[in-house]
Amino acid sequence: MSESNIIIQENGHVLTVTINRPNQLNALNRETILELHEALKSANQDENIGVVILTGSGEKAFVAGADIKEFANFKPSEGQELSAWGHEILFNYIEAMDKPVIAAINGFALGGGLELAMASHIRVASDNARMGLPEVSLGVIPGYGGTQRLTQLVGKGKAFEMIATAGMINADEALQWGLVNHVTTPEELIALAEKIAAKILKNSPNAIGAAIRAVNANFKDGLNGYDKEIEEFGRCFGTPEFVEGTTAFMEKRKAEFRK
Ligand code: HXC
Questions:
Q1: Predicted-complex ipTM score
Q2: Buried b (16+ CB within 10 A) or exposed e, 159-194
Q3: Is the CB of 5 under 6 A from ligand 1?
């Protein structure tokens, strides 16, 4: 299936979503954000899908940010509305999905592009990738979660440096910082994401969803991550997947969670 700004490919239990505006370096306009939301929502509801891979089309960019041309004339209220809308339907939505999203960063991941990668659960990058939050060079600040998620991922000191300098780091620096998990060649990038997906797909979908909720809880205001872990841990015991996982261990065979 193909829509105007994204390409969707289903391969087994993996859905690959490619942002496809290469002439604008895959910048996120409202239409693209809406299409991404629809695709991710249906993936989240589809039992057949266990992992989503997000990437950008072309050799140059993952996503070069929010579409600057779209918001250049905005008033403060419109800026705030855009930010709140994006948080809700895309960035927070991805983070809270029941299945892991792997960002395969194939080039520039700037501003909203890096924020999209950071909202994903796992990041892998090609060795030509460049990452940054250049918003202060435009007179704004990161508005799709960057001030929070970059700080969570790399710590306050490095986050401040990246945000205040508006500078970019390369893939190896991102690996050193802990901003991405793995770096490979552009040719091997999707295969690497698929290899991680294949490992995830061997495990209990229910338990993976529970783990995402427990990990996220620590970063939410007013929630105690340890309490959430205890609650989600207990809930796993009532599932057929728990019976299958533990029975398979006792029977010295591999668990089968998927048809
Ligand atoms: C709209 C963009 C764009 C963007 C690139 N383009 N980034 N259009 N929004 N974020 C367009 C260019 O205008 C140009 O189209 C085409 O893509 C190719 O880009 P070039 O600039 O010609 O390429 P190059 O010289 O190689 O430079 C690459 C680049 C540069 C370094 C990545 O494009 C760049 O600095 N882009 C902006 C990066 C940025 O500031 N991102 C943060 C955005 S703010 P035309 O048609 O003009 O030739 C943000 C806020 C998030 O993300 C929060 C919102 C609530």
A1: 0.99
A2: beebbeeeebbebeebbebebbebbbeeeebbebbb
A3: no
